[in-house]
Amino acid sequence: MALSRRSFLPLPVALALAGCTSLTNDLVELAIENRSGGARDVTATVTPVAEYDGSDPPEPDFEGTVPPGSRQLVPDVAPSPDEGAAPIPTRVHVVAGPYEDVLRVDVTGTGTIDVRITRNGLDAFFAAKD
């Protein structure tokens, strides 16, 4: 019996899973997804709000170009709270082409801070690991 093409994951999905550190990581990772029409030069910094000092800004966690339709993963960008502990408010500063925003997400455990670049701006949210 021959295996059908449907029995395998599509190559982009398999590659995304192979590079996904959140499957085995206990810390928080950053995922920058470009849904806009062109490549974007991106600088992103993730810092817990309690540790942020405006007079001494932290080094960026990511600096580079994100091609359209792609996703860049950056491991270990923020701590995660212990199970049952309060969420950690986290500051996400993103500069992507003409867009710049400082977003706040509540980190509730291990998982991914997703930043999406669209034609209309930036969006960020926390996706907890199941």
Biggest sheet, spatial arrangement of strands: 4-1-7-8
The shape is globular
Rg, Å, rounded = 16 Å
Low-confidence stretches: none
What is the beta-strand fraction?
over 45%
SS class: mainly beta
Q: Average pLDDT, to the nearest integer?
A: 85
Can you put this structure into words, describing what you see?
The protein is mainly beta and 130 residues long. It contains one helix and eight strands. It has a four-stranded mixed sheet, with no helix packed on it. A four-stranded antiparallel sheet has the order 3-2-5-6, with no helix packed on it. The radius of gyration is 16 Å and the shape is globular. The model has no long low-confidence stretch (mean pLDDT 85).
Concise summary:
The chain has 130 residues and is mainly beta. It contains 1 helix and 8 strands.
Walk me through the topology.
Layout: H1 11-18, E1 28-34, E2 40-48, E3 62-66, E4 71-78, E5 88-96, E6 99-107, E7 111-118, E8 121-128
Parallel strand pairs: 1-7
Antiparallel strand pairs: 1-4, 2-3, 2-5, 5-6, 7-8
Features:
130 residues, mainly beta, four-stranded mixed sheet, 8 strands, globular
